[in-house]
Amino acid sequence: MSKVHNFTAGPCVLPQAAIDAAIDALKDFKGTGVPVICISHRTKEWEAVMNECRALWRELLNIPDNYEVVFLGGGASMQFLYVAMNFLEHKAAYLDTGVWASKALKEAKGLGNAYAIASSKDKNYTYIPKGFEIPADLDYLHVTTNNTIYGTELKEDLDSPVPLIADMSSDILSRRVDVSKYALIYAGAQKNAGPAGVAVAIIRKDALGKVSRYLPTMLDYRTHIDKESMFNTPPVFSIFVMNETLKWLKAEGGVDVIHERNVKKAETLYAEIDRNSLFVGTAEKEDRSIMNVCFVLAPGKEDLQDEFLAFAKERGMVGIKGHRSVGGFRASIYNACTQEDVDALVACMREFEALKA
Question: Which residues are catalytic?
Fold first, then answer.
């Protein structure tokens, strides 16, 4: 089989080391004779995986002692409701930077007073709003740090006078984060941290217990903190692969090293988009994501879209079609995507330009 370069937005490319470990564990989990997908989560072998995974999150992101790390079934979309249930008492604000931010806001509106503090919808979410004031009477401010559909990213941790909550599903572990600035960080695993099926939540303990509403047991973060993410059967396979992915990241040198690689990959691809006469980037340059590179064909060249997709597929490019809501192209260059993959896409774009320009 010829080399495949996977740029899919999610589930994403994973480190080969994590995939190989998963294959072995599907045959025999840690010498138990039982496949990992069949192992009891109450065994000492499984508890060791959970403990190691929590410890790796703490180490890689330098998580302070007054925070808890929990693993929850499902993805970030379920966390939209968790957030509002656990934190919304009087009023909350959301930074509206795309589809997922607006969906998170919708869930909060269903439970109380929540609104968009600023929005980039006026320009189809091609930039990150700036210069907005944060009222001091908010229960929390919610941000989505990376917007996969539109290719924009909030690259610095905001200073907020109120509890700050972030959906970091598609850029967590790609850069250094000051966890202490957040009341809660949550992320679906399927971009940088593992396969679909599990979400991680990093929670400052004293931020909980502020709402007067009844919290269903399963929707109360404290339930999962108290039971160490095993109140009910956890998604063992997804957590196992997450743990192997974090082990790989640590072995590669950690978040700072991977950030340098991510920046280089993004710079390489954006430079080609800006140079190539057939393509145009869609996000404002100062807000361009280092995780999801979105671009379209230049004016007058739009009829080449299907031809370029077929051309790229023949050369091993997988997953570069843009989200169905915006069209165009998107290359998701998450942590395990290599410089070789990006260089191959650039070469493909140059070859197509030579044929069509």
Answer: 100, 167, 191
